[in-house]
UniProtKB/TrEMBL annotation:
Residues 28-128 form the AB hydrolase-1 domain. It holds the Pfam family Abhydrolase_1. Coiled coil: none annotated. InterPro entries: AB_hydrolase_1 (IPR000073), AB_hydrolase_fold (IPR029058), Epox_hydrolase-like (IPR000639). SUPFAM superfamilies: alpha/beta-Hydrolases. GO terms for molecular function: hydrolase activity. The lineage of its organism: Bacteria, Bacillati, Actinomycetota, Actinomycetes, Mycobacteriales. This is Alpha/beta fold hydrolase. Gene3D superfamilies: alpha/beta hydrolase. Keywords: Hydrolase. It comes from Rhodococcus daqingensis. It comes from the Bacteria. PANTHER family: EPOXIDE HYDROLASE.
Length: 324
């Protein structure tokens, strides 16, 4: 039984310093956060999965927290982001691991079976279903969306713009984005605004005062402190690298994901709304390894923080099934 706090380490891998939290012993599970996340986004899973007998590893992804944040957008493409995860396993002497991904972390981990097939034993994917390859470069699609309404993916493309706005208003931005994307389900309010003349803070609804049911002041302050120190450019560069990732995946993207997969999402996650009528039918075709889909009521995008007991139970059920 592993009790107590995670330990923190930084290892030099793949040309960067990669910081991670680690807790427990046993089969390794690597948890990959998205935007705007940190290792800390998995605090509830580190505790529960380690207590159940797993070695849980939660990195600050490239560009975030106490991990290096290279300035070049090209340093956030697939060879780099896959190389970080392979390098992490190498540094820890781990042959293969179960990978979990959320948001941009899920974009990366969906690609891992094609890019590093001998290192991935299974996937636990949160919020972002596997989707077919876009017929056009992502930036072209983003620009089209922005012609209809404010689209963060387009706003994030121009280096320096979002970096300044979010960096100058870190506390306000984080409160707004965490609230809007949560089960409060206000994110699509953004679509009522035009792109022209608006920044992200202009279009996100005002959040209620903390504490919330799923986030207290101390937890929120941890995010604020880290992002005030690092800024947002590293996280934004994942979006700016989307065209490169799209090109690099050309021959791999439609390759079926055959390792066992659990999919978990909040019923009120705006990502599911944005993905059209039935993202699950499409995912079934692309992911023959799909073992379970768990949609959690009254939860939004940050499902692992909003409903940790339910997410932990779904993960442990899936992990238990792998070993039997």
């Amino acid at each position: 039984m592993s009790m107590g706090q995670p330990t923190h380490r930084t290892v030099a891998v793949n040309g960067i310093d990669l910081h991670f939290a680690e807790q427990g012993e046993g089969e390794p599970v690597v948890l990959c956060h998205g935007f705007p996340g940190l290792w800390f986004s998995w605090r509830h899973q580190l505790e529960a999965l380690s207590a159940a007998g797993y070695r849980v590893i939660a990195p600050d992804m490239r560009g975030y927290g106490r991990t290096s944040a290279p300035a070049q957008v090209s340093d956030y493409d697939r060879p780099h982001t896959v190389g970080d995860m392979v390098g992490l396993l190498d540094a820890l002497g781990i042959e293969r691991a179960v990978f979990a991904g959320h948001d941009f972390g899920a974009h990366l981990t969906w690609d891992l079976p094609a890019w590093a097939p001998d290192r991935v034993s299974a996937l636990m994917q949160l919020s972002v279903p596997r989707a077919p390859r876009l017929p056009v470069q992502p930036s072209v699609g983003f620009k089209y969306l922005a012609s209809k309404h404010f689209a963060h993916v387009h706003y994030f493309q121009e280096p320096g713009v979002a970096d300044r706005e979010l960096g100058d208003n870190t506390r306000a931005f984080l409160a707004k984005i965490f609230h809007a994307l949560s089960g409060a389900n206000r994110y699509l309010d953004c679509w009522e605004f035009p792109s022209e003349g608006n920044g992200y803070l202009d279009v996100l609804p005002e959040p209620p005062a903390l504490p919330w049911s799923w986030l207290d002041e101390d937890e929120f302050d941890y995010y604020v402190t880290e992002f005030e120190r690092t800024g947002f450019t590293g996280g934004l560069n994942w979006y700016r690298a989307e065209d490169a990732v799209w090109s690099q995946n050309e021959s791999l993207h439609e390759r079926p994901v055959e390792v066992p997969v659990a999919f978990i999402a909040g019923a009120k996650d705006p990502v599911l709304e944005m993905m059209g009528s039935d993202p699950f039918a499409t995912m079934g075709r692309l992911v023959p390894g799909l073992v379970s889909t768990r949609i959690i009521p009254d939860a939004g995008h940050f499902v692992q923080m909003e409903k940790p007991a339910e997410v932990n139970a779904a993960m442990l059920e899936f992990l238990g099934g792998l070993s039997s």
